[in-house]
Amino acid sequence: MQVISTTDDLARFTKSLRKQPYVAVDTEFMREKTYWPILCLIQAAGQGEEAAIDPLADNIDLSPFLELLTDKKVVKVFHAARQDLEIFHKLIGGVPAPLFDTQIAAMACGFGDQIGYEPLMRTLLKAKIDKGSRFTDWARRPLTDSQLSYALSDVTYLRDAYPLLLDTLDKRERQHWVEEEMEALYNDDLYYVHPERAWKRLKLKGVRAKEIGVLMKLAEWREKEAQTKDTPRNRILKDEAIFELARLQPKDGASLARARSIPSGFERSRTGASIVQAVKEGLDIPKEQLPTIDKPDRDKAPADVLELLRVLLKRQCETHHVAPKLIASSADIEAIARDDNADVPALSGWRREIFGETALRLKRGEIALKLDNGRVDIIDS
Question: CATH number of the domain at 3-190, please?
Answer without folding.
Answer: 3.30.420.10
